[in-house]
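Format notes (please read before filing issues)

Several people have asked whether sequences and structure tokens are stored in separate files. They are not. Every record keeps both together, in the order shown below: the sequence lines, then the token lines. Line labels are part of the format and must not be stripped during preprocessing.
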Amino acid sequence: REAGNANAKGMPAVFAALKSAGIADADIQTSRLSLQPQISAQKPGGPTQITGYQASNRVVVRLRDVAKVASTIDALTGAGANDIGGIRFTV
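Then the structure lines:
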């Protein structure tokens, strides 16, 4: 619950950064929500233990102006986004 709450707490800043970059609501979509256990490294053959959880979600953004790519990435990282990838250019 703690990991999910922390993730949810940070997302409004990410969405606000997208909106301030001029991205329309219709061009923003959450595509994945993930909660993964974090497992401690023990001695070989020893038991493993869950030490916590990591929550994340992926947001798909459609930029209609290629000139906004760099400034949008800057705004997102400034808002706390820390895993930006899968950038595609299509016509």
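For reference, the curators noted about this record: The mean pLDDT is 88. The two ends are 41 Å apart (CA to CA).
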